[in-house]
Amino acid sequence: MTFNTKPGASLPAKARKLVIVLGDQLDEQSAALQGFDPAQDVVWMAEVAEESRHVWSAKQRIAVFLSAMRHFADHLRGQGLPLIYTRLEDADNIGTLHAELGKVIMQLNPVELVIVAPGDWRVLQNLRATARAHGLPLDIRDDTHFFSTVRDFAAHAKGRKQLRLEYWYRELRRKHGVLMDGSEPVGGQWNFDADNRESFGKTGPQDVPPPTRFAPDATTREVMALVNHRFADHPGTLASFGWPVTRVQALEALHAFIQQRLPMFGKYEDAMWSGEVWLYHSHLSSALNLKLLHAREVVQAAEDAYHAGRAPLAAVEGFVRQILGWREFVRGVYWTHMPEYLERNALNAQAALPQWYWTGDTDMACLKDAIHQTLEHGYAHHIQRLMVTGLYALLLGVQPQAVHAWYLSVYVDAVEWVELPNTLGMGQFGDGGLMASKPYVASGKYIQRMSNHCQGCRFDPALSTGARACPFTTLYWDFLMRHEELLKKNPRMAMQLKNLARLDVQARHAIHAQAQLHRGQPSA
């Protein structure tokens, strides 16, 4: 345990408020620090092994959190705030948030605990239990990093038979005046998806700007050495580590995206290309989720680029939709439906996650590419997650909780409030349609259309049976057959089920046998 020894920042004998700062709350404007009195109050931060091991976290994810926490702690010390900081390698570190917080409470005997609402239901319950055990009030403050509160979302959701992003997104656009012309959306429409989401074509991506990466400084190198030692058996590698871990770096990454990638973001936001990791995406989600960036400033920067003529409206609206729309939506779904949401499995999917998700050792070119880059960089863009790794797991019938644990483990931007609904709900349809209006299923033809992965792959996306049958295509038809009765109740699945109806009994049997062969199971 280390203490702030900066002159004027000594610890009080008895703290008034013990302000808890978690690893994804690295914001000096945090609501938890409002009203902070350095003469009476103390900030507490802790690195605990529990947070890296409750799922088998990949090295990149662990390093992002630890490095960003240590840099933020240094910043707080520089501001003269009394700080107690527990490092992972401290000899007396018990390894759990509950135990480490209990030690500090016994030492400082604070009057109350203060925290911004955590991004993980499990962590919130642990903190509440600790506060109760010590007879202390826990002041949980709204996370002002977001445009909305959970109460706002609950009020929006009340009485609705279905929750849909579009209505919430429009409500927030109006409320905050984002891309609005009076009471109407700029450009006369809310959604410019029809102008976006193209493929690269045969020539592939051209002149893609290099990613904004940051050479590890002494603090980050120290963390990398620690992670490689303490978590040597965890997946991934740190050889390419270059994520923003400070506020200054995060702002630089934001500026680079707005200037270099945003103009082409919308057009190619769904496109994939072998070996192209970064493309025109923002690479800002980890900085946003650590609170190194504020959602409002990110949206404002994109909107300013449109008004200055530096980015087309379709690209800006598509990006704003991800931040102001989707990000706020998934947070609302998470907090209004936990903890039971974690257990949902509407399709009764029970298959195990294939072991090669941890290695990328597969002959399927699209999956091999997406998983290898995930393990190398802790990153894959949203279509690789939804329509490659997620789609395969959905079609195979993997238990959604296993898919959730993998996503939470491997991505640097994974905090449960955002990852769980995206994975279990959007990706796996485990919530039965709360998040998405239909299962996002497609055959290998979708991947062929949006990428070059199928070129040179041993599998043919046009084939559902035979030695060269694409597993995505086989499993797509098998998925529709297995869930046909359920899907008939969903009008958005009508076209796909109409195509399924064209398959005769012989074709259905052949597809089922091919699917079972792929699973390594005997055909019934």
Summary of the model, kept short:
With 524 residues, the chain is mainly α.
CATH class of the largest domain: Mainly Alpha
Supply the helix-strand structural class: mainly alpha
Distance between the termini: 60 Å
CATH topology grouping of the largest domain: Serine Threonine Protein Phosphatase 5, Tetratricopeptide repeat
Task: Tell me roughly what share of residues is in helical segments.
Answer: 40-55%
Beta-strand content = 5-15%
Assign an overall shape.
globular
Structural domain count: 3
Largest sheet: 6 strands, mixed
Would you identify the regions where 5 or more consecutive residues have pLDDT less than 50?
3-8
Average pLDDT works out at 95
SSE sequence, one letter per element: EEEHHEHEHEHHEEHHHHHHHHHHHHHH
* Strand line-up across the major sheet: 1-4-3-2-5-6
Structure description:
- The chain folds into 3 domains: 2-141, 3-Layer(aba) Sandwich (Rossmann fold); 150-337, Serine Threonine Protein Phosphatase 5, Tetratricopeptide repeat (Alpha Horseshoe); 355-519, DNA Cyclobutane Dipyrimidine Photolyase, subunit A, domain 3.
- The chain is built from 20 helices and 8 strands.
- The model is unreliable at 3-8 (pLDDT under 50).
- The chain has 524 residues and is mainly α.
- The strands form 2 sheets. A 6-stranded mixed sheet has the order 1-4-3-2-5-6, sandwiched between helices. The chain has a two-stranded antiparallel sheet with strand order 7-8.
- The chain has helices at residues 50-53, 59-78, 97-108, 121-133, 150-157, 165-176, 218-230, 247-265, 285-290, 295-307, 313-337, 365-377, 382-396, 400-410, 416-427, 444-450, 471-482, 484-487, 494-501, 505-519; strands at residues 2-3, 17-20, 42-46, 83-86, 112-116, 138-141, 180-181, 184-185.
- Helix content is 46%, strand content 5%.
